[in-house]
Amino acid sequence: MSTVSRSIGYVLHARPYRETSQLLELFTVSEGRMAAVLRGARNRGRHAAQPFRRMELAWSGRGQVQTLTQCDEIGAMRLKGDRAICGLYVNELAMKLLPRQIQAPDLFEAYEQVLCQLADAGIPVERPLRQYELALLKWLGEGLEFLSSDDLEPGAHYVLEPQQTPRRAGAGEMDSPHCITGRALTALLCGQLEDREDRRQARRVLRLLLDHHLDGKPLVSRQLIARGRSDATS
């Protein structure tokens, strides 16, 4: 008899599977990213598994794809329009950058936080998206967790290159796409990206770092965002 496992989680991606089921990519507290089948999903109608909903999950089985025995919504983030597209971006990054079945409780917390803030129309989307990207890059081992805003000089420039220790820019590096001012980097680390130029620099540098890990994998959500607005995300 298979052991039943339980966790809180979210649907990152769902697609039809066979006649009435769904094949889901999930992000859970206990397992990180995982794949599972929800049988009879079409019979659940609007209660079928969907993104941006906090779910109570239970599953059993062996191998890479589990079988859900419970999939109950216990909360939902109401994302509409551009904010829903930003939510798709958040999910797509997790789908393409997180390996399956590796616990990531800190990143799960950052994931929940970005969804909550995207659902709040009073919060500009730029701030939570950059914080989520930053948390993801720290989890991927980019060394950004060692940066301290106390050690940065606002007027200085710093270089953030993939898989390299962040460092102060040398002569001739001020125009590097990996370069960011101390002021913008401090605002990013403190979650206070209020200035437009600081936001632009942070967005550019984080995108370059993420692109290194994406290794050429395209993000559909970026294309959708680019069509709708120019200053929302990477």
UniProtKB/TrEMBL annotation:
GO cellular component: bacterial nucleoid
Domain DNA replication/recombination mediator RecO N-terminal per the UniProt entry, residue ranges: 5-73
A Pfam family matched in the record: RecO_C
Gene Ontology biological-process entries: DNA recombination; double-strand break repair
Cross-referenced Gene3D superfamilies: Nucleic acid-binding proteins (2.40.50.140), Recombination protein O, C-terminal domain (1.20.1440.120)
Record keyword Cell wall biogenesis/degradation present: no
Keyword DNA damage: yes
UniProtKB keywords: DNA damage, DNA recombination, DNA repair
InterPro entries, alphabetized: ARFGAP/RecO, DNA_rep/recomb_RecO_N, NA-bd_OB-fold, RecO, RecO_C
Protein family per UniProt: Belongs to the RecO family.
General function of this protein: Involved in DNA repair and RecF pathway recombination.
Name of protein: DNA repair protein RecO
